[in-house]
């Protein structure tokens, strides 16, 4: 397991969060095998039936299908890696079917709702108005992930090319366009940022800073989540609003306005086009909702 975790970190460039999640799932699996079949059970003796029994145990504990599917994904990756290393002949997890997950299409705010929230992000609901406006403009205007947002350094903003360098999953780098509204928000934020750093006698490479300049001053993903929820709720967005809601809105609204699916894939940093195609489903779902509500033969 330690060698597998090291491979995830060093070869696949997996994030610390991903590595911890895989380690947690595999340790739970190992603990179950030890308790049920004894500590002397060899890796080569593990069969697909035992994996199915473990998944059944997870259901008994009250875990949902999504959680069970995550556990199976970790086990599959581990056995696939061990098969390549010659530690097992083949992966028994390959014979275990993934739980069929219900398709939950997230509710995406309308273009009008997003414009209202973004334009009001610097009002009294904001702890640091200039910074918080920049957060909303970057999340919705560039479609980047929360972790990509907080990882942006000043040096990553290429003003001449009107682009920002972001580091996505697996440390893959890509450039995203810096729109006029986002650029204006950043320009209004930078003097305030510099004054705060100068007043504290500090420096930081990070674009987005926390209010108290704790640590190296960089804002955390958890703080961004709280900022987005507070401001979103204050302006009428649903209670489950989070930074990824703005990313979903970015992809959906671009598709609604006629953007090419592959262009959206490139902008959002999706490795597979099938991930981007979720936004097609979102749009179709919204069209179906309008049809059901308005067409006389649908009632």
Describe the 3D structure.
It is a single chain. The protein is mainly alpha-helical. It contains 13 helices and three strands, in the order αααααααβββαααααα. The N and C termini lie far apart (56 Å). The model has no long low-confidence stretch (mean pLDDT 88).
Highlighted features:
mainly alpha; 13 helices; globular
Write the topology of this structure.
Layout lengths: L1 H9 L5 H22 L10 H13 L4 H21 L25 H9 L9 H14 L3 H5 L6 E2 L4 E5 L5 E5 L2 H21 L20 H14 L8 H14 L4 H8 L4 H4 L1 H17 L5
Antiparallel strand pairs: 1-2, 2-3
Helix pairs in contact: 1-2, 2-4, 3-4, 5-6, 6-8, 6-10, 10-13
Write a brief structural summary.
The protein has 299 residues and is mainly α. The chain contains 13 helices and three strands; from the N terminus they run αααααααβββαααααα. The protein is 57% helix and 4% strand.
Count every helix, treating DSSP H or I runs of 4 or more residues as helices: 13
Based on CA atoms alone, the radius of gyration comes out at 23 Å
Arrangement of strands in the largest sheet: 1-2-3
Cα-to-Cα separation, first versus last residue: 56 Å
What is the general shape? globular
Percent helix among the residues?
55-70%
Structural class: mainly alpha
Beta-strand percentage range: under 5%
SSE sequence, one letter per element: HHHHHHHEEEHHHHHH
What's the total count of β strands? 3
Task: State the major sheet.
Answer: 3 strands, antiparallel
Which segments are poorly predicted (pLDDT under 50) over 5 or more consecutive residues? Answer: none
Q: Give the oligomer, counting copies of the same chain as homo and different chains as hetero.
A: single chain
Mean pLDDT: 88
């Amino acid at each position: 397991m330690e060698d597998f975790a090291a491979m995830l970190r060093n070869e696949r460039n997996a994030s610390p969060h991903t590595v911890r999640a895989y380690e947690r799932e595999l340790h739970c699996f190992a603990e179950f095998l030890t308790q049920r079949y004894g500590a002397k059970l060899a890796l080569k003796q593990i069969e697909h039936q035992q994996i199915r029994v473990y998944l059944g145990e997870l259901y008994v504990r009250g875990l949902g299908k999504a959680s069970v599917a995550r556990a199976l994904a970790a086990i599959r990756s581990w056995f696939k890696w061990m098969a390549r290393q010659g530690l097992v002949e083949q992966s028994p997890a390959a014979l275990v079917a993934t739980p069929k997950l219900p398709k939950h299409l997230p509710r995406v705010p309308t273009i009008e709702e997003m414009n209202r929230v973004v334009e009001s992000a610097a009002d009294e609901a904001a702890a640091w108005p200039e910074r918080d406006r920049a957060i909303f403009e970057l999340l919705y205007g560039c479609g980047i992930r929360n972790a990509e947002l907080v990882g942006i350094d000043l040096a990553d903003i290429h003003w001449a090319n009107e682009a920002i360098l972001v580091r996505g999953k697996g440390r893959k780098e890509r450039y995203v366009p810096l729109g006029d509204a986002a650029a204006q928000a950043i320009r209004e934020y930078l003097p305030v940022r510099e004054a705060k750093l100068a007043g504290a006698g500090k420096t930081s490479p990070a674009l987005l800073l926390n209010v108290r300049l704790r640590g190296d001053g960089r804002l955390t993903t958890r703080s961004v989540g709280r900022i987005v929820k507070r401001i979103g709720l204050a302006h009428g967005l649903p209670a489950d609003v989070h930074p990824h809601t703005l990313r979903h809105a970015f992809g959906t609204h671009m598709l609604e306005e006629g953007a090419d699916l592959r262009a959206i894939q490139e902008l959002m940093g999706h490795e597979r086009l099938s991930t981007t195609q979720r936004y097609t489903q979102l749009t179709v779902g919204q069209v179906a909702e309008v049809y059901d509500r308005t067409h006389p033969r649908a009632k």
